[in-house]
Hints:
By secondary structure, the chain is an alpha+beta fold. Helix content is 22%, strand content 37%. The strands form nine sheets. It has an eight-stranded mixed beta sheet, with no helix packed on it. The longest helix has 19 residues, at 340-358.
Amino acid sequence: MNYFIAILLFVSLNVCKTTAQEILEISEAEAKSAASKIHFRANPNTSNYDITYHKLEFTVDPAIADIAGKVTTTFTALDNMNSVTFDLDDHLTVTNVTQNGNSLSFTQNSNDELVITLQNTLSLGSATSVSIEYNGTPISKGFDSFETSVHGNDSTPVLWTLSEPYGALDWWPCKQDLNDKIDEIDVYISAPEIYTAVSNGLEQSTTVNAGIKTTHYKHQYPIPAYLIAFAVTNYETYSHTVSNNGNPFPIVNYVYPESLTSAQNSTEVTVDIMNHFISLFGNYPFENEKYGHAQFGWGGGMEHTTISFMGNFSRGLIAHELAHQWFGNKVTCGSWKDIWLNEGFATYLSGLTIEHLDGESSFKSWRNSTISSITSSTNGAVYLTDADTTSVSRIFSGRLSYRKGAMVLHMLRNKLGDTNFFSGVKNYITDPNLVYSYAKTPDLITHLETASGLELDEFFNDWVYNQGYPTYNLEWHQPTNNTISLQLNQTQSHSSVSFFEANVPIRLNGTNGEILNIDLNNKINFETFTENVNFTVSSIEFDPDYHLISRNNNVTLNIKNDNFIAENISLFPNPINNILTVQTSKNIEINNIIISNTLGKKIIETKNKQINARQLSKGIYFITIFTNYGDLHKKIIKN
């Protein structure tokens, strides 16, 4: 989703390259927009039935912030039921409820529930339909879920809805539950005939009666309540066609008349982005209907299924909302704790669009900006806790759900390689058990592990389920003409992770302009790597292309003669029983001594050359001796 605060983001409608800053702003605006929304979870009183169909009939005038509606819902009982509960804001007034043409009794309460008493007990597995007639003035609780405004020099009225995450109940009786997708919907929008109405799915017909035009849309793919939407104003329409390997479908654009020329110059790129996403992730999920854009009054957009509502037509916004048709709409996050499966992917696919259309240099700049934002604070996980889901601003955290989620995907791509990564993601997004349904983080893990043959639990524990990022110190020297020795020391920004396992990219630069890129598969702290190199190394760059979430890294060349230090410091006994002695010769002065476990946790810190090691359990440890000639790192064993 991308509903911007307009004052924060004004982007022109002219075609432009997507900048890294623009992608960051997309998610930042989402998070800030969501901050004032009420806290809400799926209503447990709606858990005893499964919705299969909605007939949605709305009568509106974009000049007036009112709605009159009739919603007919077909559902199947998951338990024996004497009543059925729908989510509906109590500011709306229900006037009549029927089942099989017979009126039913009902109540509305202050918990925003509509409770309907059924004609008879509906037994487990049985289905029925109820029709609800209602009207009123929707009150958007900080999120403009039902909004009227104006546009253009003549202040033409416009009406739109935007229900993510919890706004559907503000304007229609529904079931706000991510795990219950409606199999099929028919939407009928009645408004003054001077206006054009747009909604999900394919337009079926328009009829005019006494100056009121009714437009019928049908959507025949499973859809959650928050992705159902409509908009009404004096739209101009035009289309692009996606060839889709001989099964073409349209991209239909609904834009304000005053924006027509600039929008036509901007939206053609959607075809290229669409084709790129199809090549990576399989067919457009709703190819039997349409994709489209409908201009609305925010500065950003919202990925309603088959029709993204757009406040501007910047390339970054086009890519982000289109990406959601796969990641969020075809496969929806199974809980708000897993929101990164929607927003992390959409953010990363915006980055992939930069890579595809602008090249690696621009994509590198995007990664750099993304990492800078992620590491601007020391805490925060991609995956949410139960407590996090009570705060909408935390659910839609731009730094974590969007940008860190995106960079975690890039790190997985770097770890697995392009072939395995894209194969695993494509298998995830086309899994018959997930498509047009919902997924949770373990579903993605399973597909990436199957594609790569790697075990990824530790990676996800470090980078998704827990918090923070690493800072590295890399020490190196070249003991021979054709080898280089490198040692990595890591500290963590948050205590929830004792050590971040990661592929650490470095670049070796030679004295004659040679370059060698290496990934160090870093699994423990103070790990030493010996790599072959056929030139004299003059310098080392740490993660020069920004593939790793980290900050404040340091590279040190041991110019004070590593051999001299090693030859003039001895440790005994090793293995250790109780006392470890550090013996020095020449003019070496010890500044500090640290003993750490294999996870990098500091166990002992001292300046004494006689170290009491009785507190150490049996096992392997690493000792670092800091001296005036450089640092010595060695492995020690406690018996």
